[in-house]
Amino acid sequence: MATLYEGFTLCGLLQTQNVSDSAIQGIELDGDSDHVVVTDTTRSVTLYKVSDQKPLGNWTVKQGQSLTCPAVYNNQTKEYVVVSDKRVIRVWRNEDLNLDKAFKATVSADVWRVHSALEGEPVVLFNRGAVRLLDALLSAPQQTIENVLSEEEIIRWSTNFVVEKQHFVLFTTEQKKMHFLYVQRLNPNTLHKYRLEREDSGAPPLSVSASLWDKRINLLYMYPNGCVYQSAVAVWGQAAALEDEEAPALPRTLLLRLPVGEGELGAASAVALDEAHVAVVGVPHPSAGTGKDFLCVWNTNFQTLQAGKEMAGRIYGQVWCYSGKLLVPHGKALSVIPYDCQKSSLASALGKLWKCGKEEPRSSVAVPSWNSLLYEEQPQGPARAVETRRSKLSRKSQSVLALTVDQVLELIKTGPVEEVQREVEALVSRGDAQDLQTSVGQLACQLVGRSQAESAFYTPGALAQLVHTQYLCHSVCPDLLLLALEHKDYFLCQLCLQLFPDIPEVVTCACLRAFISVLDGDVEMVSLEPDSVSFMEGLVAAGARGGQQNGFSPALYDEDSCDAHHQPRLHQDKTPAVQLEACPVGLHKAVLLNEVLQTPYSDSLLLPHLKDLNSQQVILFLQYLQFLYLKYSQDAYTQMPGLRSPTMTQIIDWVCLVLDAHFMVLVMAPDAKGLLKNLHFFVKSQVRLFSELGKIEDSFKELHRMKPSKDIGQYSIEVIELF
Amino acid sequence: MGEFKVHRVRFFEYMPTAIRAMSFNAHTERLALARVDGSVEVFNFADRYFQEKVIPGKDAHSIEALCWVGGRLFSAGLHGEITEYDLENLRPKYSLEAYGGPIWTIISNPQGTHVIGCEDGTVKLFEVLAEGVQFERNLDRQKGRIISLSWHPSGTRIAAGMMDMIRVFDVLTGHAIQRLLVDRSVGGCKSRETVVWTVVFLSDHTIFSSDSAGKVQVWDGHTGTLVKTHQLTKWDVLALSVSKDESSVVAGTSEGTVVQFQFIAPNLQQQEKEWVRTRTFKNHTHDVRALVEIGTAIVSGGMDTQLVVRPLLEKFEEKCFASGLRRIHFPHRNLVSCAQKARLLLLQFPGQLELWRLGESDGHGKPGDILPLKTKPEKLLYLKRKGKDHICCSALSSCGGWLAYSTVSSVRLYRLQTDNNISITKVPKLPKVLRSAHQLCFSSESSYLFAASSQSSVLFGCSCLGENDCEVHVYNLQKLELHCMVPMYSSCPSAMGIHPTTNNLTMVHADQQIFEFSIAEKQYTVWSRKLQMQGLHNLWLNRDTPVTHVTFNPKNPDQILLHDMYMFCIIDQSLPLPDQKTQFYNQMTLRSLSEQERPSHLHAFKVCKSFQDLMCMRLLDDQSLVVVERPLMAINSQLPAPVRQKKFAT
Prior knowledge:
The complex is a heterodimer of chains A (723) and B (650). Chain A has 723 residues and is α+β, with helices and mostly antiparallel strands.
């Protein structure tokens, strides 16, 4: 899960003439992670200490001059570098107070940017595509600069990296509505040119950012239609694109398709936080209206929104990310928002898979299109275009009859129950996966919101269908499960318990309490998921049949599992044990309890909520768990493969948890005495089983150790000791 | 005791050859055994199956059958000759061409008449005379080769196994009087002839036959009718043997099984006896080619090269040495010589000698470690023997400067240079009397070569010992005369050595007894008397392979080093002897004890079983040990594939 922490304002922004333009030209890191150099669009460069929210220094060029590129900090020489009026490179130190007195050099061509990487010297990128190392340039400032790009080709974005002591400068250009990516390597110099594929709308990318993971440059770019693409740039490719040759298309992966709300995105930007998380500004929050002033963190593996924050004021489509902090200019301020991207274990597992999959094409020449290699089932590029066209077509043909997501959302607010139900079902049943993913959450939230507001409004069918799409999880719509409980919609509860991976323990406990205390008569009429019902029927029937396979008798089993000196007592206990054959709860109630048993939880979080159960509930629940355990100890467990059913471990864990939570209560309650006694045997038999297994394991280990697979060759010199 | 560096050598690719024929002399309790390479071995079954004699083989001289006449041993083979062996000098005495093509079998009757079966279809009778054998006459010549023969105990009839049939001859007239037709294989190819591999003629004129179709058949010799067919296997039944009292017949098959038939009443009420298949033993992986029933045990051998003595447990009242299953894999003598000073190993094969230099390591390690090698072992020399006769013994001087080997026809001595450039020069003009040697030995300072020639002898140090029928003689080499005789002991010494400093002679016998004899005082030493008084530990006495080498630690006169196939042992004479209650194999226990507790648990026999299938163990001058292992697994893996057998789930 990613979290956005409470942010703070680093500095105010100057008002520019044009309201839509940001007042900040660039932010660069100053050596360590706590200092940033902020260059505004006019004349000044300011050094801030981020944690103190305090400016440490400010340098301004004279009136009439302007800074044309963000200042950078040269980490090797501890100097700042900036370009004014496109041709004058200025270099100064922290102790220099006046920028005019600092070192100046005028070069012979217009400079686009100066870039500095942490472990390398700064490089200068000229407007016409030439690249120089700063030192080399300053030693002969008037050297002639060649033109790499033609007159009409304009640089839009650039960055640099140092990968294994090799400088790389990446920049994108625009020429006749075509967009290109250049990868320039220095020493030895090579230049690669790739074509960025055109998006449907033909719009230029809104933002480009690049990040370096695992010695591999990942380019992230976002289009006004909300699509975020990722491309891996092979830095070690050999074939340089020739001038006259068609530049190869840069293969790309669709990382995210963000909801754009109305119209297209204007000023938005995406930056990768790590392999699995992307921070986006200027894109609407999927469950909060159409305002675009949000900073959101998306998980790209699961396509889920992990965190969102509304930013007051205008978003300029700028975001920087330095060492755990996002810097976002918005409204009249530059805010610093610390973030944290924890890898969930599943995500890290997936991330690993994702990474090792990417290693494969490394050896192939230039940039291979591994979209086709890796994601054949969801092809990008032309095939994808066809698909979207087709879906568009189908959407077009249906649009006469059905409503769009937005229309349905509108309808939910006011429409009658039947119509809402019908329209939602229609939408879900026709919708294509990509669209549904984002809309399902909105629909569910809207439905739940209305139901909570109007008690008469409840659409179980529509909600069930939404849950069935599996695009929903508890975090997206936290009130859904509780709403279902409130409406005694046990089928929906069961669905949610089955399909939601992230139900909080408190809700699980609420479900458990509700299920235990429900009257059997109420629940028997409810139709539940047939597989789980048939499992439970089978389990109950196994006992009712009486006979066991292979002449096995449960009484004998119990004797076996107890110590010899317990045997006489056991014979007395036989009668209650046999009585337990009958399931203490009704069939459907049992099915629901099974679902609770199978929900994921963590012990420490569940325990306090378990205390909410009263003693009658606890005893009933324990009786049911004991019933399950006894059934499982017999043959029933293996008889029904493939059906969703609680495992032995889950049952035992729950027994332990319930006992932990209510031990004192149970000890005091007279009617729990027999139960506790039985459970005592039950625990004992488990302990015995495990100790025996432990012994067997140890014996095997010992065997393994005794026979070391020592490969003795033809000759060896060994040391032995005789006593 | 301390730590030892052990050179663990596994590059000796010794490969025993398959056992082809066996003959048991019940009178002397000697088993003669012939291998495919033509060598003959004699085992003393009265003396713990000790391999008393080995007569080396010869190229192109394979043996098909062996037979004893009294104490004399004869063989015949596909080379067409009858050979008698000189069991004193361990060499063929003479060979006689039989003029009948290859000979498949040779048997003798108690009257001392030989009879052989030849490829050309003749059965030839030879008379055994004191000085040799003499051709007597032919029986009626038959069409087809004679594969197997059996005398009727009366000496008047001979049964002969041939292709597809068995003939019974009347010896007096020489005519064939019965013709018993043997079926061809049932499932297999009808066109393939059935070879009657063995026949056994019992005194009640019952004839047993075994054939290549997997059958053992019982015939009535009077009427020539088939009594019963036992289909044992799909493959060949190669060997048959009958017990002396004719109550039991055993058959060996190509599957490695031995099947016993017994002449018993099939059920309790019935009086009439018949031949019933009773037991099956599986002790071999490959063909059982030779089989002998010796009354208390079944002795079998075959392609898998091991000799197996499988006791018939109903013949034993109590547990004893003879009631255990024995497998004899390795010869009871040394095939490896070691130059202790020069760190060289001489490996003896029937056809060649290999000289290896041991590797080196300068590392140190704790017990159990394998040290990194500085230099790898190196094969310095590959010396092919001259002539057709196989090498019977070889020796290497401890300085590594001399090498000698002997065949039955010649002894050769070589000067070796192994320092920088390896060279070997034959020493010419050895004395003419030295035609052959059974044992070769260099003196410790490499100035003398001792060769035991006319008797089976072992030679050592400044004195020279000879053994003959378990006698041990001590000779004084300075005076070149008999010094004394060690008191007679019933069991053959399997290894002995003279201590370099105390001049005590240590002998280990085939029955595992250990004696120490003081040559100076001409009597057993005090330690030896104490040992005999107290008796050796039962676990020591019950080991089933003989000690094949005794040596001493020059740095510590109390230590005697000896080894058998499964262990090596360092006897420390300064420590107390173990009694029957002491834990004999106590190395593991000692390891777990603390320094202080250890001395009270120590005893004289320090046995190390870490190294198995030992062919040689020596102590080098730098106090490191050399063990030469030849893992049986490695031998088995080099055997030809056994016949395919149906196993469950295959």
